[in-house]
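COMPLEX REQUEST
Ligand: aspartic acid
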Amino acid sequence: MVKNKVAIIFTGGTISMKVDPRIHAAIPALTSEEIIGMVTNIEKFSQIEIINYANVPSPHINPTMMMEIAMLVKKTVAREDITGVIVTHGTDTLEETAFLLDLIIRTEKPIVVVGAMRNGSELGYDGSSNLSAALCTAISPKAKNKGVLVVMNNEVNAASEVTKTNTLSLDTFKSPEFGPLGIVDNDEVIFYRDIISHQFLDTENIEKKVGLIKSVPGMESDIMDFYIDAEYKGIVIEALGRGNLPPEMLPGIKKAISKDIPIVMVSRCPTGRVLDTYGYEGGGKNLRELGVIFGGNLPGQKVRIKLMLALGITKDIDTIKEIIEYNVL
Ligand code: ASP
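STATUS: Structure written out below.
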């Protein structure tokens, strides 16, 4: 019998779906055993332990559930008999759960998050090939100390860098800034590069009331007022270009900051970090002077996870700033 033992935590998503003939649309339907049964020769590679967390589409996964999944992964990966852990997940919010796991779990063992773009009723279901690539990664000593990995379409990406880039393509998970860490080829994982630093946040708490705003020309402060009045504890803004905002948003920004609500800014551009390059009203320099925190090159939905975790640790703005700006400024 093979010595490896991999725990697969099932949470749902298209990898667990089939088309319901009554409504002609995909819904959760496949069991964990059925999914594993489609991965040919799996028993030659590893013993498998199935852990059923849920069978839900990923738009139903909320931050409380993300934290529950993280606690389950943390407990499972710490077991001596476990070589690595795989989490199956819907692809819509996969990057958020994967990033949360990456930020709060400290282990040298591989943790791999995987999903599928085609459900079990479609021609060319990619769940089994993605799961087999995830398994090859989870059992590989080369995948140790790499942080949480996202494996889809035979590509290995870092959870800290990856994002879903296409609504349909099997090749949807990309690290647009730096490219993949490696590939899975011939049942083996091959790494081409490493990530230089790995941020660890020691928390089991998450603040749920964190909003996300995408800025547009002419945007005013009313949206900021909404979040402030609704007692949101933090706000992420996807700003324009290098990190600039319409001046009409400044009253709202000032009001939030005066109430100690951290404002974290990233760019609505798909790549590149924000910086205090511009000195005009609403420019990055002006925003920085007002106390806006710079979130580097992360997409808004990922820096929101970081801010939610930071707010789970502290309400102190300077400490939150240090956490968010770690390695980006
Ligand atoms: N809507 C699905 C989900 O995120 C998409 C997928 O899994 O690919 O659950």
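REMARKS: Residues 63-77 form the longest helix (15 residues). The domain at 210-324 is CATH 3.40.50.40 (Rossmann fold).
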